[in-house]
Design brief:
eight-stranded mixed β-sheet, Heat Shock Protein 90, Aminopeptidase, six-stranded mixed β-sheet, 19 strands, alpha+beta, about 25% strand, globular, 3 domains, 13 helices
């Protein structure tokens, strides 16, 4: 995926994309006045003049030379247009465009705020990216919107030195201040104009003095977080991806509450490096045994905090070496989670983890899971719940390759290596075993940690193989986990 600033010949394809998405997803529920107003705003004659005056900057997302998303930004940091083509929604393109715009605001526009007039359906989506409503719903010329904003942390842009690499852009913007910054997006030279679509140039209009702002990166899925491109794993719908597509199962009458807790830390005194963490995790209350409740919550938090511990609280030797060797060290971590299975006796949680582990060249993404008994705080491992015999290994590997859509996936490791990895003994930590329960069964797989130059690296962050409860029964051990589920 390539994100870059558009040149004038590329405005027509961008506006064509905008209209196609608007006409399909928004116009049917809009008033005639609203549709007419929007048509006026996106007329090429007007937009090209605004672009030439430098009053709008268009960013485009390209895949194999084809434009699949666009965002228009004013120099004051206001998002004026934000659209992703229908076939590519739910794949992380909108988030990448948003992150690029944030970085551009900080690095080039030097504006302290990013604002948008969000369609009501998109508000929660923007909240997930760090924006907040600043007033209630408004309407102007048939366009309904809610003004939103977020602060741009101008101090969190990596200083450039002579001969520096292509800039990194923010990969996570969370809360009022950016929490994760700078993921690499190649900004290549201008590609030749590929499509020459136009709009009806016979419209008459008065130049509007306002903008129309929509984020349709999802089809009716605005309330869900999105994972950047490159994630493997479970995808069950066009609207959701990553952990948010996992079909959750929360029993009625579980007898306890599940709340969210968050650890936040930012070292604002250090000017020579960035240290910032935002780690969210579930917290249960109302268990019958207070000591078990304390134990369970301690484990849930510790699981979420593993990266913070490894890169900051008790840094590994390689992290120390990176920090010492970097001109501008970065220690950042963002963790979100989803409770995908909750019954009276068992809780299954997946965590997604993003972070910079020493510097801008050390961006990492991880999937972690925690499956825990609410009766005694026991943490279940794959090796305890599944008989890892040859029949299971063959079935599991076939499912993994099906999920990865790659018949050669994991071919670099023999069966015994993979079996040991599922037991928790992975060579060099490449295959970090995970499993989780959900509404459809159990998924077992790996968080993948290939070296950057490893020729076997398929580009996935994590892949898990799904089994229904009936399918896994043939391989199930005598673990009390299965008794708790029956």
């Amino acid at each position: 995926m390539e994100i870059r600033i558009l040149q004038q010949p590329e405005l027509l394809p961008a506006l064509h994309l905008v209209w196609e998405v608007y006409a399909d997803a928004i116009a049917p529920s809009s008033t005639p006045e609203g549709v007419a107003s929007f048509q006026k705003f996106i007329k090429y004659d007007y937009i090209s003049q605004v672009w030439q005056r430098g009053e709008l900057i268009f960013f485009g997302a390209y895949e194999a030379g084809t434009l699949c998303g666009t965002l228009a930004l004013r120099p004051d940091g206001h998002i004026a247009l934000f659209f992703v083509e229908k076939e590519r929604q739910g794949q992380g393109i909108g988030r990448l465009l948003f992150q690029y715009a944030y970085q551009y605001c900080a690095e080039h526009l030097h504006t302290g705020r990013l604002t948008v007039n969000a369609a009501p359906e998109a508000v929660e989506r923007y909240v997930h990216m760090g924006m907040r409503p600043i007033s209630g719903e408004q309407e102007r010329e048939g366009i309904r919107y809610i003004p939103m904003e977020m602060y741009v942390n101008l101090g969190m842009v990596t200083p450039k030195s002579h001969g520096a690499k292509t800039p990194w852009i923010a990969l996570g913007v969370f809360g009022v201040v950016l929490v994760l910054m700078l993921t690499f997006i190649g900004v290549n030279a201008y590609r030749e104009f590929r499509r020459g679509y136009g709009f009806g140039h016979d419209w008459t209009y008065e130049e509007p003095d306002y903008d129309y702002d929509f984020d349709y990166d999802y089809d009716n899925g605005f309330g869900s977080e999105e994972i950047p491109d490159g994630y493997g794993g479970y995808e069950d719908s066009e609207e959701l991806s990553g952990i948010w597509a996992i079909p959750e199962m929360i029993d009625d009458g579980i007898g306890y509450e599940i709340e969210e807790d968050t650890y936040e830390f930012s070292d604002d005194e250090k000017r020579s490096m960035v240290i910032q963490f935002q780690v969210s995790y579930p917290k249960v209350s109302g268990l019958s045994d207070a000591s078990v409740e304390k134990k369970v919550n301690g484990i849930l938090k510790a699981r979420a905090m593993e990266t913070v511990k490894r890169i900051y609280d008790d840094p590994a030797p390689e992290i120390k070496e990176r920090v010492i060797g970097e001109e501008y060290p970065i220690l950042m971590n963002y963790v979100d989670y989803k409770v995908c299975y909750a019954s009276k006796d068992v809780l299954s949680v997946v965590y997604e983890d993003y972070g910079y582990e020493g510097g801008q060249d050390y961006y990492a993404q991880h999937l972690r899971t925690c499956n825990i008994s609410l009766k005694d705080g026991k943490v279940y491992e794959v090796k305890d719940i599944v008989e890892l015999g040859d029949a299971f290994m063959e079935d599991w590997l076939s499912r993994m390759r099906g999920e990865a859509e790659n018949d050669g996936f994991l071919a670099e490791a023999d069966k015994e290596t993979l079996r040991k990895a599922l037991e928790g003994d992975s060579p060099n930590g490449v295959y970090d075993v995970n499993f989780f329960l959900d509404a459809e069964g159990i998924e077992i797989g790996f968080d993948l940690n290939y070296a950057g130059d490893d020729e076997n690296n398929p580009g996935y962050v994590w892949v898990t193989a799904p089994f229904t409860f009936e399918e896994i029964d043939a391989y199930a051990s005598g673990s009390d986990l299965w008794k708790s589920l029956r």
